[in-house]
Amino acid sequence: MSSTHRQMHLGVFVLGTGNHIAGWRYPGAADSFVRLDVVQQIARTAERGKFDLLFVGDGLSAQMGAHPSFLVRFEPLTMLAALAGTTTHVGLGGTASTTYNEPYNLARQFASLDHLTSGRAAWNAVTSSEPGAGPNFGREHPRHDARYEVAEEFVDVVRGLWDCWDDDAVVADHATGLYVDPSKVRTLDHKGRFFQVKGPLNASRSPQGRPVIIQAGSSPPGLSLAARTADVVFSVVQDLGEARAAWAALKSRMADFGRDGREVALLPGVMPVLGATEAEARDKLNTLQSFVTGDNAATMLRNRLGMDVSGFAMDDLVPDLPLPDTSHGFARAMLSKARRERMTWRDLHNLTGAARGHWVVCGTPVQVADTLQEWFEADAADGFNILPPYFPGGFDDFVDQVVPILQARGLFRTDYTGRTLREHLGLTRPAV
Amino acid sequence: MSSTHRQMHLGVFVLGTGNHIAGWRYPGAADSFVRLDVVQQIARTAERGKFDLLFVGDGLSAQMGAHPSFLVRFEPLTMLAALAGTTTHVGLGGTASTTYNEPYNLARQFASLDHLTSGRAAWNAVTSSEPGAGPNFGREHPRHDARYEVAEEFVDVVRGLWDCWDDDAVVADHATGLYVDPSKVRTLDHKGRFFQVKGPLNASRSPQGRPVIIQAGSSPPGLSLAARTADVVFSVVQDLGEARAAWAALKSRMADFGRDGREVALLPGVMPVLGATEAEARDKLNTLQSFVTGDNAATMLRNRLGMDVSGFAMDDLVPDLPLPDTSHGFARAMLSKARRERMTWRDLHNLTGAARGHWVVCGTPVQVADTLQEWFEADAADGFNILPPYFPGGFDDFVDQVVPILQARGLFRTDYTGRTLREHLGLTRPAV
After folding, report:
1. Among partner residues A60, A81, A204, which is closest to B78 by beta-carbon distance?
2. Which of A82, A310, A406, B145 registers the highest number of CB atoms within 10 A of its CB?
3. β-strands A212-215, A121-126: how paired?
């Protein structure tokens, strides 16, 4: 990963009904997130586009009225595993919660996915921002900082379980009948504040050594966890200056943990809306926005800001508001943009409806490629997590129209050179 | 399912290294349980054989020294999901614990698998018999009866979550933008002794209405749970008389819950060892048995009986012993056979090493078919869970040599007539 040959890393954020809240209403778009053929087609397109990663988020409650794919969705591990046999190169990453899982179960599932994919699994470790999750688990949803305290230990336990087996512990010696060399398997014997886990895992060391770890926290504890443990970081951005500052903050924080900043790929989320002309792209975005119902946008905005904002008049300017206890990333990026651009609540509703608070880049393929290149070269990003507004067309457009430009400019691979996700990302395979 | 056309149901029990404890040492056998191509081949063979079900068990600890596939294994949900896209008809069933999972997570995973497979998912609800699981979850492993008390409520919560959505709740109305009809989705609001779960699930109702539920408990609480909630029951048998009694007991117990005995398929586990002649089959079994190491068999026997039996001399007769707190099914079948046949500890070691305590039928294809037919027609079984001693050859032999005989006798389907597992089993799709 020398800086002279620094290349972008690209992920695709999969929501079956599209990342735009009303993408499913776009002519020709898929309108279900529980159809295997839809996600298989997305995966094939990701491999055609030589993407590093296919990513699926998750939630642990049915958020009635919100984005349709937040309401009716595949469970990520099963969805990703279903793609194992029908893909060959693209990394397969999914969200799983450190608040509502057992580390032993989660470590097994991702190790299993890594075996099934010959080294393409990635875990997005989230603390779960939705308060609605708690009642589905008989618990009060923990507060933000408390969730991160658990997450720190949870991630350590999972990594520890992945490290219980030496690479060569399974000998399967036909002559002697020895299957596992017991001297190459260790218990973990973790006794922490939140977890006690003996181990070892009942899975041998997986092809990547450890599955790739993704994080998306942007609060101070989120940044710490990412800087200490992540291989890939997703971020919510709306402004180049803020993105550059966030990039520098992450890389600098990594140094506190003795890590080189190049060991993490920071991938801001971006929704590309493409047209043959800028006007055509604007028209497409306007069409998508015309499909947003007031209820959808209001529910999404309430969830993102962690407060009921229905008391505000739509034409009032968005005031200064405190960060919520749910998710800091979206709220900070959106409120900051609202202040910067003197947005009304109506503007903020529209912004939320479009890309759920993520950055929207609207224009011709060259304009979009120019913007991505600018951000990449300004040290605001190591690549991007692409959020097509709808599937399959919105993703096809990016892969067929923007990726070739990035490739021609030497910014993105023209073919896979590795087989594992770690290899795509230029990361070393961790030693036990 | 009229009795004049009663047909067998067949499952295949998948352990990558074979069901025989040393099957992996057989010439040509697969010797790993973490290879996707191996399980894909098994799945293709199951569909060639028109099997109802492909089944994978599970455990929550690495049982060092035991069966190799108990030590290094795929996590079942991810393994089954990986088969979703490369199979079309066979049911895909896997074990998941009611003791070490959250019902909300588990309900989602199986609903997701049912969507991914267009209606072929099955959950084997187990309470986890291994004491070694507890320390991996920071808990003391609960006692047998306590585990079943939790399991009763756990299964109800999962079924309740599956029932939160009407079949037609997702409307995806492109004209109005209404995605879900909120009047067709309900919370569960379960407040029980062990679980409080609000719901609804964030998954629409799955193709089978509810994934198929499998159970394998044979203790009084296990029998109750199976009689009340199961669609398929696995059993451990060694004797026709005992199997007939167990079959009658299950069907009779179902009546206590207002269910018709035909609503459950009872499938005893059986390991077929085939040869062109009976002597050839015996030789094959002897070859397999010669591969068993003393350690393997002793570990397996200790686990099955729930006690350390190393103090007994190998040539002593097996005495009367109490049933363990771990798993009753295996211990009861094995101890009963040992008494009936005046077996020594050496004999019991050999029996355990062969099929982990399951029934072994050794002979020509016609002899094996005869035996299965006899049991089926004697109301000792509604079909069988086939445990090939090794893969792929041991399963190929059964599918190519025994299945055609069963088909020619009108005992087993010659092609699939349905698409979902419920349809294969002749079960109705449950109403909400």
Report:
1. A81
2. A82
3. parallel
Smallest Cα distance from B43 to chain A, Å: 13
Q: Decide yes or no: CATH 3.30.70.2740 for domain A3-272+358-425.
A: no
**Candidates B75, B135, B202; nearest CB to A59:** B202
B2 pLDDT more than 60: no
**Of A288, A260, A238, the residue nearest A390 (C-alpha):** A288
The pLDDT of B184-206, averaged and rounded, is: 97
A vs B: CB pairs below 8 A: 211
Flag if A196 and B138 touch (Cβ within 8 Å): yes
Distance CA B176, CA A293 (A): 9
CATH number of this structure's domain B3-275+359-425, picked from the four choices 3.40.50.460, 3.20.20.30, 3.30.70.270, 1.10.10.10: 3.20.20.30
What pLDDT band is residue A3 in, cutting at 50, 70 and 90?
very low
Within 8 A of A113 by CB-CB distance, chain B residues are 78
Residues A90 and A51 sit within 8 Å (Cβ to Cβ):
yes
Nearest CA in chain A to B64: A182
Q: Contacts of residue A36 in chain B, CB cutoff 8 Å?
A: 84-85, 115-116, 118
- Beta strand pairing status for A196-197 and A190-191? antiparallel
- Please, are residues B247 and B264 in contact by the beta-carbon 8 Å criterion? no
| Three-state secondary structure of chain A | CCHHHCCCEEEEECCCCCCCCCHHHCCCCCCCCCCHHHHHHHHHHHHHCCCCEEEECCCCCCCCCCCHHHCCCCCHHHHHHHHHCCCCCCEEEEEEECCCCCHHHHHHHHHHHHHHCCCCEEEEEECCCCHHHHHHHCCCCCCHHHHHHHHHHHHHHHHHHHCCECCCCECCCCCCCCCECHHHECCCCEECCCCEECCCCCCCCECCECCEEEECCCCHHHHHHHHHHCCEEEECCCCHHHHHHHHHHHHHHHHHCCCCHHHCEEEEEEEEEECCCHHHHHHHHHHHHHCCCHHHHHHHHHHHHCCCCCCCCCCCECCCCCCCCCCHHHHHHHHHHHHHCCCEHHHHHHHHHHHCCCEEEEECHHHHHHHHHHHHHCCCCCEEEECCCCCCHHHHHHHHHHHHHHHHCCCCCCCCCCCCHHHHHCCCCCCC
- Identify the helix (H) or strand (E) that includes residue B37: helix B36-48
A24-72 pLDDT per residue, tens: 999 999 999 999 999 999 999 999 999 999 999 999 999 887 889 989 9
Place of tokens 């898929």: A30
- Angle subtended at Cα A63 by Cα A46 and Cα A294, rounded to the nearest 5 degrees: 90
Radius of gyration (Cα) for chain A, nearest Å? 21
Find the CB nearest B202 among A72, A82, A137: A72
CB A172 within 8 A of CB B16: no
Residues with Cβ < 8 Å from A374, sequence gap 6 or more?
A240
By Cβ distance, the residue of B86, B102, B135 closest to A198 is B135
Integer Rg of chain B from CA = 21
H helix count then E strand count, chain B: 14, 11
Rounded Cα distance between B8 and B380, Å, is 12
B25/A174 touch (CB, cutoff 8 Å), yes or no = yes
Residues of B in contact with A100 (CB under 8 A): 102, 104-105
**Residue B3 pLDDT class (50, 70, 90 cuts):** very low
Binding site, annotated residues of A for FMN = 58, 95, 144, 148, 218-219
Contacts of A61 in chain B (CB under 8 A): 202
A204 vs B contacts (CB less than 8 Å):
34, 72
**What are the residue boundaries of the structural domains of chain A, listed by start?**
3-272+358-425
